[in-house]
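Final report, closing paragraph on structural work. Over the funding period we assembled a curated collection of sequence-structure pairs, and we close with a single example.
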Amino acid sequence: MDNNQTANKKNEAESGHQPDCYIILFKKDRIDYYIDRNHLNLKVGEWVLVQAERGRDIGLVKSKITQDQIDRTIRKYPLEILHRAREEELEQLKKNRAEEDEAIASCKELIHFRGLDMKLIDAELQFDGNKMTFYFTADHRVDFRELVKDLASTFRTRIELRQIGVRDETKKIGGIGPCGVELCCARWLKEFSPISTQYARDQNLAVNPSKLSGPCGRLFCCLEYEQLFYSEINEKFPQVGDKVGEKGDECFIEKIDPFKMKVTIRNTENEKIEILKLDDFNKRFRRANKDWLMKWLPKKPPEKK
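Its predicted structure, as stored:
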């Protein structure tokens, strides 16, 4: 941290006037974290002019956050909110959006001319025109150095090409999920978590990637939403296919119903099917066979010597 930033923080701490902290929303749900030293008392949905890494940009106030929250972000030095956006600045933003559409068309022509194996997704022009960012996807690494030169000579500004993943692509394009609702990533989801087929198994879903994948071709992000519930439930219930009981009362676990808290069992001798409440199942099988119970109990950490 440089001397000026250190001095600012020290002065704010001594005066008791900490800056207000906000999340600012930019094009296609890109967000960043900003501080407001002027205490403008901003409301959600207001347009503001902010610092950019090189120059200035315009964004929308998404939410107000605490200093602790902003300290936990990956940005080492938070940028500042300068003032509420003026009418002429909002007009300039509209012109920039029109230029972005033209830039996308020009960039696609240059990509075709250079024969590059990449898919252009979007373009974003910084408010002050000092930088234009192009977002693209590609299956392999792309040497786009000549393309950057072409774009820089065409638009006379700093050019950044940013490769994104297929999930980020879907987030930018948007769409409707198989549930009939707008895609979570386009509507509110800000970070992607790794999703595995084990989630589907834990949730008793058929592991069929074609039916469990979103428009991006990756497994549904929503599989994670209920994973904690199923992880906790699976510790309470036996596994389907397990053999329980003793001679004369041996049964296979046919089905579990975590919502109704019931277990379906099948007797190995007479093939009789029974549906038991989980409590009744525990009384009948788990307490009668303590050795078999041990595999369900949470593993205790080894004692330190």
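The first helix runs from residue 3 to 15. The mean pLDDT is 85. We thank the funder for supporting this effort.
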